[in-house]
Amino acid sequence: MARGTIIERGKDTYRIAVPLPPDPLTGERRRLFETFHGSKKKAEARLTELLSLADQQKLGADPKMTVGEFLDRWLQDYASAKAPKTFQRYSEIVKNQILPHLGNTHLAKLTPSHIVRLLAILHQSERRDRRQGPLSPQTILHVYRTLHAALECAVKWQLLPRNPADGVDVPSVPRKEMKTFTIEQAQTFLEASVREGAKWQAYFHLAVTAGLRSGELKGLRWQDVSLDAGSIAVQQNVQRVPGVGRVTRQPKTQSGRRPIALDVDTVALLRRYRAEQNAYRLQMGPLWQDHGLVFPSEVGTPLEDKRIRVVFFRVCDRAGLPRIRPYDLRHTSASLLLASGVHPKVVAERLGHSNVTLTLTTYSHVLPTLQQDAADTLGALLKPKPARAQ
Prior knowledge:
3-stranded antiparallel sheet; mainly alpha; 8 strands; elongated
């Protein structure tokens, strides 16, 4: 590779050219040009300095490439391979929160202070969607994580020597109080769900006892259910992505593809419900769209979230219970298991968490009770036995 050139452009003015490695994405040859004002000796010293930086891969970014241009490339070449809902979220954040403030900044000149300023602006900004009020701390955290992930790719692609977002404190998010049902409320809720029919009774029962996500319940197929063995295997989930439509995908992680043991009551509910579904399917005839789903719509297609919420809130109202979210049935399942003394690793496996630390962090509200139980148990074991009467 040529070691750079200096061309005199006028009195004490020189044009320095430094070769760079080919663009890691397009393979195109690149050079860095810099206009230098001073003596030729100082220009030669500047060339030596730039060559040293190039050897250290600290001149990787095209000096003319903006953050906006890079993020467009990142979305197309990297983020588009992610799950549709993840890609949509990345695209919205880039368009609504990052580009308006950093889009015209040159990537090579992006510093931690730019990102700190961006986060400060977002704390005071109005939302760009239809909802009222400022951005939530959780959304600002998503913005930081999205930008950090994109810039991490810029480092891997040798467009930046280091990630500017590493020099920025991660935005804090106040922990919200988790809303779950108590054991008595969960029992009342499941009893009230009986009036919705066998399908919804089984749906909510499985949501509480197995701790499945909504997408996992919508994607559960009869081929994934073994009633004789009393277990299910989570193999896929169904989501609706705005602008894309209904999407069926495998879980993102190996831990998400998991077997879950069922209790005898849940198995009995599923047996009764399957018989009813088979009879209903025959009654529908050609109108039935068979996807093999355990919990389909009235015509066999995957359930819609809106329909689930309507039925869920109706059961809550009928039972006189607070309107928590349908997703909170999963939280209820985990909290009740941990509070009952089930080992956190087992709970993590049932939930499909990648590690037990995530489980303990998410359900830390249960830990004080567990700590006290552990202390009481150990104290009872170590308590001196009363002396025998002589």
